[in-house]
Specification:
Elements (H helix, E strand, L loop, with lengths): L5 H10 L6 H22 L29 H5 L5 E2 L2 E2 L18
Antiparallel strand pairs: 1-2
Helix pairs in contact: 1-2
Length: 106
């Protein structure tokens, strides 16, 4: 079964953030074609009079912004593995800079 050209497969893989080399793309081309053939069969179905199972609303759903009580901070932070001064403690991601502006050990 003939499939999409290698460039189209590589472009599709890149959009999906998949690493695919040219050899894999040649293998995937016919597989893509088989999948697309299934969609062609679906497009031939007569769906006249069939009610949709879901409807996408194009209206913006807006609710009033009202203050409501929430959980106490101590109860939320108390579940943290490393609570620090009422906040969540997390490991340092950016090293501290020394007096000369150079990155140092964290």
């Amino acid at each position: 079964m003939e499939g999409p050209d290698v460039d189209l497969v590589l472009e599709t893989a890149a959009l999906a953030r998949l690493e695919v080399d040219a050899g894999e793309a040649r293998t995937l081309g016919p597989q893509f074609a088989a999948i697309l053939k299934h969609f062609e069969v679906l497009s031939e179905l007569d769906v006249e009079g069939v009610e949709p199972t879901s409807v996408v609303s194009t209206e913006l759903q807006v609710r009033t912004d009202e203050v409501r009580p929430s959980m106490p901070r101590d109860a939320l932070v108390g579940n943290a593995p490393d609570p620090r001064e009422g906040f969540y403690g997390v490991p340092r991601a950016i090293p501290k800079r020394d007096a000369g502006g150079q990155g140092g050990q964290s």
